[in-house]
Amino acid sequence: MKEFFSEYQLLNQLPLGMAYVPLQEFTHLYENLEEAFCKGTLFKDLYKPFSGRRCVR
User: Fold this and answer.
1) Secondary structure class of 29 (helix, strand, coil)
2) Is the alpha carbon torsion for 25, 27, 31, 37 positive or negative?
3) Residue 18: phi, psi to the nearest 5?
4) How far apart (Å, rounded) are the C-alpha atoms in residues 17 and 21?
5) ∠ CA 19-24-28 to the nearest 5 degrees?
6) How many other CB atoms are there within 10 angstroms of residue 44's CB atom?
7) pTM score, whole prediction
C-alpha cells in the first residue's frame, strides 16, 4: 500500500499535458445511422478498421 502512495505522489509532480486538435469538418457523413453505429462513427473519414498489422517503419 505504501508503494501506491509514493507512485501517486510522483504523478502529482508531473506537468499537465497539452494537445492540439484540429477543427473537425462535418463532411462525408454516413447517411445510414445503423451503418454508422456499427462502425462507431458518423464520419467516413474517421473510420479506420484494424488491419492486423503493426506500425513499423
Assistant:
1) strand
2) negative
3) -125, 150
4) 13
5) 145
6) 13
7) 0.47
